[in-house]
Amino acid sequence: MDRKVTCNVLTGFLGSGKTTLLNAFLRQHGTGGTAVIVNEFGAIGLDQFVFQEVADNVYLLDSGCLCCTVTHSLRETLLQIKDVAAQAGQADLRQVIIETTGLADPLPILHALLGDRVLMDHFQLGQVIATVDAVQGAAQLHTHGESLRQASVADQLVITKTDLAGAAPLKVLRGLLKQVNPHAQVSESAAGQAATSVFAVDEVCRSMALLSSQQRHIESGVAVSQFSAAQPEEAHDHGIHDHGIGSWSAFIDVQPTWAGVSAWWNLLVHHYEDRLLRCKGLLRMDDARPFVLIQGVGKVFHSPTFLARWPDADPRSRLVCIGLDLDAGWLQDSVRALSIAEPSSRPLTLDEVNDCLS
C-alpha cells in the first residue's frame, strides 16, 4: 500500500442520516477500495449490521465516543486496516470512511489523525462530511453545540430528508448553513436520491471540495461570518460549547514561501491558541511543485498535499480560517507573513513580521 489512503470523516447530529447516506454509497459503488469504521456511543453496537449485506470490511468501535475516549482504538483500527490490506494484496484500497456518533466533535478525531506520524505515513486526511436534517437541522443548530461544531468544520454539508421538508424550512436551513459555514459545499439528499458523490477521493475533487467553493463567497477579498448557538443542556460535554464560531476567508496577493507558511501558521497558533479550530489554504507557491493544499486542525499543521494542476480558473491563492472570536483585520494583516523569505527560529509576532518585511 504505497499510496496514502484517504480518510474521510462522516459526522452529523443524531438521526441526521449518516448511516443512510453511507449505506447508499456502498450499495451504489460497492466496497472495492473502501473500508468503513463505525463508531457507536451505546454499549451495544447496531449500525454495523446495516452494512453487512453490502460490505465485509466494516469495523465497529463501540467502546465510547470517538472524540472522547476511543482515539487509541481508532489508531489501532486504522493500522489493522492497513495490515489487512497489505496481507491481502489490496493495492486498490483508496479510502477509509469514519462514521462518528451523532454527538461527536470531529476535531479530536482530526487531531488523532494529523498528530500521529505513524498514521500519516500511510493515511491522509480527506474531507469532513456533515449531514444536516432538513426537518430538524435548523433547531438543532440553534440548540445543540455539537450540531453547530459538526457543521462549522465540515468541507461538505449534506442536507438530508429534503423530501420531508417544505420549501420555506429548507430556505431557512440553507441560510443558516451559509452563516455557519459559508465555505462548505452544500448538497441535498432525499429518499432514494442520496448525495453519494461527497465521498469522492480524486485529487482534484478533493481540492475543489476543500477550497474552491468559497470563491463565490469572497466578494471584496475578505469574508467574515459569525453564528451563535445556545449551550446544550444535554450531557456529553466535550469541554467547549460554542457561543460564537466565526469564519474568515480571503484571496491573497502575496507570493507564499515555505518559510512564510511556517511563520504564518505559528503566528496564528500563538495568537488564537485553542480558539483556532481549522484552517485551509490553496496556495500557488514559487516552487518546483507550485500547487499546494495546506490545512491545520487546532494547533496541528498537516503535511501539505501537492496537486498536479491548479483546480479552477481563478489563479489566486486563498485561505480559510474557522475559530472563535476571529478578528478579520488582524487575520488580513497576518497574511503578509506568508511572504517571509527566511525561516525563523521562533514564532514571530505580527509586529515582528511587519518589521521583517519593512
TrEMBL record:
UniProt-recorded name of the protein: G3E family GTPase
CDD domains hit by this protein: CobW-like
Keyword terms, alphabetized: Chaperone, Hydrolase, Nucleotide-binding
InterPro entries given in the database record: CobW-likC_sf, CobW-like_C, CobW/HypB/UreG_nucleotide-bd, P-loop_NTPase, Zinc-reg_GTPase_activator
Superkingdom to which the source organism belongs: Bacteria
Functional summary from the UniProt entry: Zinc chaperone that directly transfers zinc cofactor to target proteins, thereby activating them. Zinc is transferred from the CXCC motif in the GTPase domain to the zinc binding site in target proteins in a process requiring GTP hydrolysis.
Gene3D superfamilies cross-referenced by the UniProt entry: CobW-like, C-terminal domain, P-loop containing nucleotide triphosphate hydrolases
One matching Pfam family: CobW_C
UniProt xrefs under SMART domains: CobW_C
Coiled-coil segments on the chain, per record: none
GO molecular function: hydrolase activity; nucleotide binding
Swiss-Prot/TrEMBL catalytic activity: GTP + H2O = GDP + phosphate + H(+)
Keyword Nucleotide-binding: yes
Family from the record: Belongs to the SIMIBI class G3E GTPase family. ZNG1 subfamily.
